[in-house]
Specification:
CATH topology of the domain at 2-65 and 98-109 in chain B: hypothetical protein PF0899 fold
Strand content of chain A: 15-25%
Structural class of chain B: alpha+beta
Helix content of chain B: 25-40%
Strand order of the largest sheet of chain B: 2-1-6
Radius of gyration of chain A: 17 Å
Largest interface: A-B, 30 and 35 residues
Number of helices of chain A: 8
Number of helices of chain B: 2
Strand content of chain B: 25-35%
Shape of chain B: elongated
Distance between the termini of chain B: 26 Å
Radius of gyration of chain B: 18 Å
CATH topology of chain A: Rossmann fold
Strand order of the largest sheet of chain A: 4-3-5-2-6-7-8
Oligomer: heterodimer
């Protein structure tokens, strides 16, 4: 006997993501889901962002890792509220894991919440967590062909940060090629070149972020 | 693994609602965009299904190619190699019309 089901596999996750979204709306948070490979510079970017946003907007961070709380410790040194989620074996954060961080964060005192996903270019793109947008980091040591290998993540992201451009001359990373590959996947994608080491491009990234936050506050006000 | 677990949970819930004793097959529709690796998903599903009414079920995956429609000229085409550019007019404003789904379509039960 056959039983018709027609249920979206991620329906349970998407329902929780929608509930998270309600909570973020109530607290007027701009929520960014930050994704990249391991070692592309997510935590360092957050440290630079914390410094650059100081006095402009209140930042909060939820960070996911398979083990250890080293990332949250690094971020807390910048006086930013940070919650570490250890996922155990899971290679991504899902909506439920993100919700489990809420009791440890005062969302009403946060303007911009960045959710630092587990380092992985595949699974994090599949699971919505209630975010406004996805931002991904690609570092020049990873290669310019990555957009072709991980289409969903590039397709779903609003902004691509190409990091570690200070060491670009020492790599065979072709910037034109990388941009073309990424735009082929997602013609709407915005791209910024940054170096979290030298600080190059950080100002542009932070103004992109604050602009998104202002748009968010504006749209909540008119809603 | 999380995807395999979700598929299992959905299948078992549907079987229980239908009063079935055993699931023999789970038919899943997966868009190419979801980058599902069939042998890997089948393996994870097998592990998740141990000691459940789906322990002997076969996971059948139907992979759906990515399709798009050009908002400029209306051309409907298969997107190959994830190139979101209209083969008709070269336009880049493409609406994805298929290949992003990930659904349990139906289950076969005893």
């Amino acid at each position: 006997m056959k039983i018709n089901v027609m249920t979206d596999v991620l329906e349970a996750n998407d329902r929780i993501a929608a509930a998270n979204r309600e909570i973020f709306n109530r607290n007027r948070n701009l929520v960014v889901n930050l994704m990249s490979s391991p070692g592309a510079g997510k935590t360092t970017l957050l440290e630079r962002t914390a410094e650059a946003l100081a006095g402009k907007a209140k930042l909060g961070v939820i960070t996911g890792d398979i083990e250890t709380s080293r990332d949250a410790e690094r971020i807390e040194k910048h006086n930013i509220p940070a919650v570490q989620l250890t996922t155990g074996t899971a290679c991504h954060l899902d909506a439920n894991m993100v919700a489990s961080a809420f009791p440890y964060l005062d969302l009403s005192r946060i303007d911009i919440l960045i959710i630092e996903n587990v380092g992985n270019l595949v699974c994090p793109a599949e699971f919505k967590v209630g975010e406004d947008c996805k931002v991904m980091i690609l570092s020049v040591t990873e290669g310019d062909e990555k957009p072709l290998k991980y289409p969903l993540m590039f397709r779903e992201s609003s902004l691509l940060l190409i990091n570690k451009i200070d060491i670009l001359p020492f790599t065979n990373f072709n910037m034109e090629e990388a941009r073309a590959n990424a735009l082929k996947m997602n013609p709407e994608l915005e791209i910024l070149e940054v170096s979290c080491t030298t600080g190059q491009g950080i100002e542009e990234w932070v103004s992109w972020l604050t602009q998104c936050w202002q748009n968010r506050v504006e749209s909540l006000r008119s809603a | 693994m999380a995807i395999a677990q979700n598929i299992l949970d959905i299948a078992v819930a549907a079987a229980e609602r239908g009063g079935a004793q055993k699931i023999t097959r789970v038919n899943v529709v997966a868009g190419e965009m979801r980058a599902i690796v069939p042998p890997q998903l089948a393996f994870c599903f097998g592990v998740a299904a141990e000691n459940t009414i789906a322990s002997e079920a076969e996971l059948n995956l139907e992979i759906v190619p990515v399709r798009g429609r050009c908002r400029g000229c209306g051309e409907d085409f298969a997107i190959k190699d994830f190139s979101y550019i209209c083969p008709g007019c070269g336009g880049r404003d493409i609406e994805i019309t298929g290949g992003t789904e990930l659904r349990v379509r139906d289950i076969e039960v005893l």
